[in-house]
Amino acid sequence: MLDVIARPFQHIRLPLGQWADALVTWLVLNFRSVFQEIRYPVQFLLDMIQHQLSSVHPFVLIGALMLVGWQVAGGRAGIVIGVCLFALGAIGAWADAMDTLSIVFTAIVLCAMIGIPVGVVAGLSARFNACLRVLLDFMQSIPSFVYLVPVVMLFGIGNVSGVLVTVIYAISPIIRLTSLGIRQVRPDVLEAGHAFGCSPLKILFRVRLPLARPTIMAGVNQTVMLALSMAVVAAMISVAGLGQMVLRGIGQLDVATATTGGVGIVLLAITIDRISQGLGMSLRDHGMQRWCDRGPLGMLNRIVRRFHRGNRDVPQPRDPRPTSLVERDAQT
pTM value? Predict the structure, then answer.
């Protein structure tokens, strides 16, 4: 008894490692085919995005993303995006950057498809939010390397496994901030919606979600950053992209390759960050200008209006045919 009190952890142990190993082994033996079926839609989405990014000329893609950044975040953001993307090609990391961008973009789409609905439910239900908070705390606290072993055993190696492990690691912020944005909607605004006879569904889509959009987009931004930070870790399970360059440089003590991959990840992070931050900006941040009145769309809209206004100012030739009974009588 005294020995137990003096050295308790030599006699009292929880076989947590054995429990985890037994659980993963049971899942592999009984549900591996189910997990393999999950790969196919993710593989289809990833291949589609990767094909589109690789088939577009670099200058066309740079110009398109500059226009997108200009539209959603302003002209300075468009210039920053153009400089970062041009620098990616200049340092010789364009192909690997497109692989990383396709994996990160696929993971962000899946995180948004899963995380936003779950966050909305958590924002509407305090009990569900309390239960979900424990799971999210666990998912954000556990080291990212720990996710690799069960994912490899269930899904194998490759880019699809990299997407799935990135989703598991990066989905927590978007769920948390979506729930926070839904719960932070002012009660008087909700009462006004109920007073005007809005149904709960209309209040959700026309009141709660529009007011929570900046907070939700902040969660998307944090998810993007976590997904990019997972690029190097996911390279350990044969995921292509800039993370593979960093891992190869570390393994071979090649400073040039590791620096190129690391700087490429930074440039890609700045590009995605500017676009995601612009999507989260409110109408007040844009000077109360609507999306169609700013950026390249606003410039195109002003040109079209000026063209139509100029056509209205030009005098039109008069039709020589009589248009009234008085003119017909005068001609006769």
Answer: 0.82
